[in-house]
Amino acid sequence: MQVFLLRRSLGFLATLFAVSVIVFLVMNVLPGDPAVTILGIDSTEDARAALRAELGLDRPLWQRYGAWVWDAVRGDFGTSYFFRVPVSELIAERLPLTLPLAAFGMLATVTLGVTLGIIAAAQHGRPGDWAIMLLSQLGIAIPAFWLSILLVLLFAVKLRWLPPGGFPGWDDPVLALRSLILPTAALALVQSAVLARVTRSSALEVMRLDFVRTARATGLAPRRILGRHILPNALVPIVTIVGMQVAGVVTGTIVIENVFYLPGLGRLVFQSIANRDLFTVQALVVLFAAIVVTANFLVDIAYVLIDPRLKGRLA
């Protein structure tokens, strides 16, 4: 077990290192001069050279990467070109919106996807199964931004039940949560479609096994068979997809926040790219990548916890 954890930890760190190298290289080989973007095309060459020196853009690439990584480890991601404040302050200011949105989206995705998948498996071959599979196919086909617009038109414009966008802050938790209902629904309805299909397939596969037939023959209640025998043994594929869907939810917040005009990290990404705010884009991309890599690392650990056979092999 210790060897497994050590191997996974080293892989986790190596992946983060590779991501940081790729992101840094991509951001620094893009065409264009950040100094010209910040100061404008009418600026003098002396002013541009002074800004490049201030930002460290006149140093060799490897030196800039080493300094960037060292500062990032200490929580210093540089200063935003556009906002003229430390990037860490921008992240700290916007994270309290993006993190709950992603968490609510992931919770709703797992709850809805697993529930619908189990219902479809229990109703296999019947109208309930067909209806859930049809809805899940529609969910896979519909883009999140288009679904967001439809939700706004229905629940905000026509019915006037929920706000169409914006975020009032956490001073009033009720208003804050109401403003996140539609974005959460837009995230969850798309992501849960895939999870529902995987859950159904995994549950049906377990239902065909001998020990489930034996449990039925002994007269156990269907709910008990589902809770004690089917669902625990169907968890490995489900957990795999959940780990992959963390990436979908995290990247989905970027689109959703712009559709609903939410001042989170996703909207900050768009603003930073538009203004060629190099340090901010680097920090945000690495942050999103770190969240996804961490989720996959936790999924690897979860495999050992939910599958006793793996635990025995790694002991």
TrEMBL record:
It is a multi-pass membrane protein. The keyword Transmembrane helix applies. Pfam families: BPD_transp_1, BPD_transp_1_N. Keywords: Cell membrane, Membrane, Transmembrane, Transmembrane helix, Transport. GO terms for cellular component: plasma membrane. Belongs to the binding-protein-dependent transport system permease family. PANTHER family: DIPEPTIDE TRANSPORT SYSTEM PERMEASE PROTEIN DPPB-RELATED. This is ABC transporter permease.
